[in-house]
Amino acid sequence: MGAPEPTEGPLTAEELQLATRNRGLPLEALRYDRTPTGLHYLLVHFDIPDVDAAWRLQVGGNVSKALELSLDDLRARPRRTFPVTLECAGNGRARLFPRPISQPWLDEAVSTAEWTGTPLGGILEEAGLKPGTEELVFTGMDHGVEKGYEHDYARSLTAAEAMRPEILLAYEMNGQPLEPQHGFPLRLIVPGWYGMAHVKWLARIEAVTKPFEGYQQKMAYLYKQFSDDPGQPVGRIRPRALMIPPGFADFLSRRRTVERGRVEIVGRAWSGLGSIVQVELGVDGEWRLAKLGEPAGRFAWLRWTAEWDAAPGEHVLSCRAADSAGNIQPSEQPWNYQGMGDNLIQTVKVTVR
Ligand SMILES: Nc1nc2c(c(=O)[nH]1)N[C@H]1C(S)=C(S)[C@@H](COP(=O)(O)O)O[C@H]1N2
Ligand SMILES: [Mo]
Questions:
Q1: Quick one: 282 and 303 in the same domain?
Q2: Which of 46, 274, 293, 294 could join 323 in a cystine, given CB atoms 3.0 to 4.6 angstroms apart?
Q3: Atom 16 (ligand 1): residue with closest C-alpha?
Q4: Is the pLDDT of residue 257 over 90?
Q5: What kind and span of H or E run contains 123?
Q6: Ligand 2 centre from 100 Cα, in Å?
Q7: Of 233, 266, 293, at which residue does a domain stop?
Q8: Residue with the nearest Cα to atom 24 of ligand 1?
Q9: How far is the CA of 346 from the centre of ligand 1 (A)?
Q10: How far is CA 275 from the centre of its chain?
């Protein structure tokens, strides 16, 4: 079975099925520095695997000493805890036209949890990467078929990237053992990278001497313009700001109603390519600077605020972030075939009364 082409039509039953399995962050939950686990966005390609009590992490391939580690073994290693902002590479996909058929995210596929684990680098040193190691392949316990390719979910990192000190083999999220849907018993955390790199239900780490060519590496997560385009790999998170929609919501349309007068607009901003240097609030197309708070951590979003003197009538609020690498969010989203790395500015329609 090939891939369905992007569509100009209405949402399909398949997209709805994905949308009900995979939840987004309710935007009002941007109020929390650290997203409560039950509000953290979720993306599961296949089924949440049934994990055997005899689970061990296998570390092998081009190493001096293959390892087999239990959760207790991993817990006995050096322990690190810090907040990391995760965002799905497909966030914003549903706004593209034509629309790539996949999980139909709007703006909400982002969250920040506090992750605890042991640095991957220490485990790789223990195993001893032999000369010639180019990449590490991380394989999950989940198995399925995507566009005709049957595989275990797997992704790789280059050996240099894998040795970065902030990369974690994480066994806790927000101070608790991982919940089944977030990767119990162990997942990879790759701060700064889009979600696909953070392999859940980790079963094996393999040192390889050639670039990994698995489905999730060489087909799925690419910036490409047409089906057979070899494309460019998706990696780090592009800058984005989101606001908590102000006032109260209309149940069906989610349109907002706000009382006239001074309103404090509050949001979050993040980038995996640099630090956030500027956030702007747009009111009916006029941009003003927002006030930036301190990031919750080196790899976590920051809080921003902006004052708005709301006058009665219909308004459109928007926000956009820029990072220290010179990236700014686009007002018009360049299109790509799979809807990856979209970071169009958010817009919120508001009625002030
Ligand atoms: N094994 C495995 N790991 C995975 C996935 C998956 O389907 N299987 N989904 C990836 C994607 S696309 C994202 S966006 C993140 C989502 O992590 P979360 O569900 O904990 O928010 O997990 C990643 N890790
Ligand atoms: Mo994702």
A1: yes
A2: 274
A3: 43
A4: yes
A5: helix 120-127
A6: 14
A7: 233
A8: 199
A9: 24
A10: 17
- The pLDDT tens digits of the residues spanning 299-319 come to 999 999 999 999 999 999 999
Question: Tokens 């996909």 map to which residue?
Answer: 93
- Give Cα 13 distance to the centre of its chain: 24
Instruction: Please tell me whether residues 223 and 267 are part of one structural domain.
Output: no
131 and 218 in a single domain? The answer is: yes
Please give the distance of CA 249 from its chain centroid, rounded to a whole number.
26
Identify whether residues 70 and 200 lie together within a single domain: yes
Whether 110 contacts 87, CB under 8 Å: yes
List Cβ neighbours of 109 (8 Å cut-off, separation of 6 or more): 24, 25, 41, 43, 87, 88, 90, 91, 103, 195
Indicate whether 2 pLDDT > 70.
Answer: no
Range of the domain at 197: 13-233
Which residues fall within 8 angstroms of residue 65, CB to CB, at 6 or more apart? 126, 127, 128
pTM reported for the whole predicted model? 0.98
